[in-house]
Amino acid sequence: MTTPERPHLIVIYTDDLGYGDVGFLGPSDIATPHLDALAAGGATMRRWYSNSPVCSPSRAALLTGCHPSRAGVDHILGAPRGRDGLPPQPTLASRLADAGYATSMVGKWHLGTSESSSPRALGFGSFFGFLAGCVDYYSHIMYWGDHHPIHDLWTGTQETWRNGEYLTTMITDAAVQVIDEVADDPMFLFVSYNAPHYPLHAPQEYVDRNAHLPEDRRMIAAMMSAVDDGVGEIVAALERQGIRDNTIILFSSDNGPSAEERNWLNGEEIAFAGGSAGGLRGHKGSLYEGGIRMPTLWSWPARITPGTQITTCCQMSDVLPTVLDAAGIPPADQHVVDGSSVLDLLTGTKSEPEDRLLYWEYDGQTAVSDGTWKLVRNVRERLGAPTVEKIGLYHLAVDEAETSNLYAADHSEAVRLGAALDDFETRLTGWQQQISQQGQELSPIPTAAP
Hints:
With 450 residues, the protein is of the alpha/beta class. It folds into two domains: 8-347, Alkaline Phosphatase, subunit A, CATH 3.40.720; 358-434, Arylsulfatase, C-terminal domain (2-Layer Sandwich), CATH 3.30.1120.10. The protein has helices at residues 33-40, 55-64, 68-71, 92-98, 167-180, 204-209, 215-241, 289-292, 319-326, 343-347, 412-434; strands spanning 8-14, 43-49, 102-108, 126-130, 141-142, 150-151, 154-155, 158-159, 187-192, 247-253, 293-299, 308-310, 314-315, 358-362, 365-369, 373-380, 387-395. β16 and β17 form a beta hairpin. The longest helix is centred in the middle third of the chain and has 27 residues, at 215-241. The chain is globular. The N and C termini lie far apart (50 Å).
């Protein structure tokens, strides 16, 4: 088989995985040897951020290159069939498909359950997985919320029944099948694991592998052991096909670890502490670092130097422009994105980061950071929790754990970042008003640090 000039791309996404739940970012009680090997052979991203602290908006930003509100998904989408989600627009999948890539997705979608918001409608040539936010790992049924159970497993548009099979293993097997069938065309494969999102299910072999850990931590570790084994199988499949060197692999998570009570399987009704944010403050649903800083690596043996460590602040919306840059695909005139290509950082052709502002919004919380300083408004510790700070200023350069709110010290940084956040909040209002107006072009977020 002839390796195409354009690289293959595999995005491996996990669900509710914390910054401290992998080995490649530092000491961890969860063993992830395959991920650690990928990181050692590629680039570890020390400050890679999700665009949102929850599932659906994060995925929207990944696939569109836009802030979630601009993309049209700023909240967690529901599970009932026929619900619209991500509006029709260019995506990473559609841009790559237009350039001749074979595009496939396996696993969790969570960007709408209607036909117009389906993976196929938004650029994927094939799909195996589930459309909503979470399912039982063995029955593939959604049981939660104020609705009746919903079976949610599909091959394309065909409902698929495979009761009793562990979903993480099924996702891995489907991904390996796509790789084994790769033709001469370049491939984009989105492998979207739902682990370690609740319900905390894992086969006995993985529970036994982590029997030394406390109950809550043990189940997160067991689920991640299954994912890590899957990553090993995916890499092995690439090697069998002789395409490993020219394959870009991105591994990350949609948001930080969940502290929701429903993670427990023993009836506990207290906050769950099984996931780890690696010493960072906050969990899923929070704009503190623990809710939005993601365990992330890039691997591309042909271009990325092994052992690369990158501390520049980057965001999930950077994926689309980075991948298009790597594939030599020019930006589309009518497709405005908020992300920036970080290809030069990954390949070492640019070492000095540019001044840049990153912005977040979720459920009344907003934040802005230039990497050194961060301003937050109406922030919470976790999903569903009350507001704990109306406004906070943190010096991330010396306080990554966000323990000291310096806003009252009247720093000039509070004024500078406050003005930028005011502007962002104004733009948010405009996006929310305009998003329903099909075809209207929205102006990009200003990212140059003032």
